[in-house]
Amino acid sequence: MADEYIPRTLEPVLARASREFPVVVLTGPRQAGKTTLLQHMFGAERRLISLEPLDVRTAAVRDPRGFLDLYGPPVIYDEIQYAPTLLPYIKERVDAERHRPGQFILTGSQNLLLMQQVTESLAGRAAILKLLPLTQRELDGETQRPLPWERTAPPAFIPPLSIGALWERILRGCYPELARDVRRDARLWQASYVQTYLERDVRNLRAIGDLTLFQTFLRSLALRSASLLNQSDLARDVGVANNTVRDWLAILEASSQIFLLRPYYVNLGKRLIKAPKVYFTDTGLLCYLVGLRDAEHAAAGPMGGALVENYVMAELYKSFLHRGEEPPLTFWRTAAGAEVDVIVERQPALTPVEIKASATARPEMANTLVSFRRALGERSTDGYVLYPGQAILPLGGGVLAWPLSAL
Q1: Which fold has domain 11-130?
Q2: Which residues are paired to 394 by β-bridges?
Q3: Per the confidence metrics, is the pTM higher than 0.90?
């Protein structure tokens, strides 16, 4: 399986974007499979030029027009952030043939800088898509499998997923290189990834002098996964200023290592000022950062529930992005402390979802969902408890228990 291509949910979205826009920008973390996806879809019809090698990027920077003449459309420029000075000249070429779609496909793994440059140079000319590590449906070979609340009827077949297999997947993570080759040492790969990420992306985005301190920050943040993010507490624990924590969080979010889940409020302004919850896009890296080595310790340890919640939240988050949609996800929390893990906003309807680590579905799992449905009235649809069991079960109050393997 080491060299087997794994189909991605983003493929039809990417194909449609290349038929409708002159430029397509594909972002996402390193090793998420961007280059592999583009080679699989477009390798026969266009050349792929990596701008990471020093001699190639030097040529692009010194003579951008000559470079574009030599490697003109249709073309794929990989890691465009290494030669951002190409973007105004790409705009020049696109404007000369504005109605010709699919001229340039650009990839980049440093979303913070790349998106700023793309916005300035290619506004209105580019479709922007994001590719994250593999989803469960991609690993299962069912890229078009609907989410539970999108179904009109339960699935005829629920793929089996044992508790042991679930925890192995949580520990190993979903980066394609590890998923394609089960012989790879996951912990060794993750250690190398973190180190490479620190050396390349972090130093390119911010002048960080003490990488050891940043590593402490990473581990402290990992211990807070699936929890409310208090930046002041995090800064105090790491021993840095609040502004430093804010900048480092921005780096992790921009490079797709983490994502933030905002609380649900009708007032959008309140969502932005209230504390979010933090999640890692890959649970394998999360487990590596907190020092978990085997499934038994991960499942039985104090982070067991948080790891399952992070795994499911990352699955939902990736599922929407890989369909070309912004994830319509928030969470609900009352002043009394009652909380619903995630609200899926499908205007005007709101679908409440709880995530549980127990493989046994019990009616009390639905309590907060029932409270939410009562509070929101007609705006709330049926609720779902996502759990590692094997059966779809009614829990009462318009709530269904739904197996993770059928997610």
Answers
A1: Rossmann fold (3.40.50)
A2: 400
A3: yes
